[in-house]
Amino acid sequence: MEGCLTPDTISQAALEANPNKVYTVDLSKRELVLLCSFRQFSKLRSINLSYNKLRDIPEREGIEMLKDLRELELACNSIESLDSVKNSGLERLVASYNRICNILPILRLKVYSIQNLQVLRLDGNSISSMKGLEALSKLRILSMNGNKIEKIEGITHMIEVVNI
């Protein structure tokens, strides 16, 4: 299926070697509209899905199962919600220039969380409230330039704040 991430989309050489030895995947600028499973790539540390046509990150595709994942880049897609980005090891999340309106659902996650998140970049979305960011106790860099924020709140614990 065109526009769908399949194991064939990721380099054949990586698959032939060993999916557990693939640490970084850059699938930016591929016009992807759907994701298939990342589960066989259990050692992934970084995934770049920027500049595609993704509308969401389906829960069933295994992002939460990637225990070593530290960086997830989703910039410049058509994503409306980050609800399914559940990964307790995630340290850096870039979801700038999407269609995100509300960040509260991702902050309410209980079983799978993003408590280790240190960098959050949400520039160019339609977010109007920062409420709930205080739950991200390890957050050090926040970039929310170009949103509809009227009141800055919930970020007193942060050391460095970039572009609000």
Task: Chart the SSEs and their pairings.
Elements: H1 12-17, E1 24-26, E2 46-48, E3 71-73, E4 92-94, H2 104-107, E5 119-121, E6 141-143
Parallel strand pairs: 1-2, 2-3, 3-4, 4-5, 5-6
Tally of structural domains: 1
Shape: globular
| Uncertain runs | none
| Class inferred from helices and paired strands | little secondary structure
Largest sheet: 6 strands, parallel
Number of strands: 6
CATH architecture: Alpha-Beta Horseshoe
The CATH superfamily is Ribonuclease Inhibitor
Number of helices: 2
CATH topology-level fold name? Leucine-rich repeat, LRR (right-handed beta-alpha superhelix)
User: What is the strand arrangement across the widest sheet?
Assistant: 1-2-3-4-5-6
CATH class: Alpha Beta
Oligomerization category of the chains in this entry: single chain
* Gap between N and C termini: 40 Å
Strand percentage: 5-15%
- Approximate helicity band: under 10%
| Rg result | 16 Å
What order do the helices and strands follow?
HEEEEHEE
Instruction: Summarize model confidence as the mean pLDDT.
Output: 80
How would you describe this protein?
By secondary structure, this protein is low in regular secondary structure. It has a single domain (1-164), classed as Ribonuclease Inhibitor (Leucine-rich repeat, LRR (right-handed beta-alpha superhelix)), CATH 3.80.10. The protein has 2 helices and 6 strands; from the N terminus they run H-E-E-E-E-H-E-E. It has helices at residues 12-17, 104-107; strands at residues 24-26, 46-48, 71-73, 92-94, 119-121, 141-143. It has a 6-stranded parallel beta sheet, with no helix packed on it. The chain is globular. The N and C termini lie far apart (40 Å). The mean pLDDT is 80.
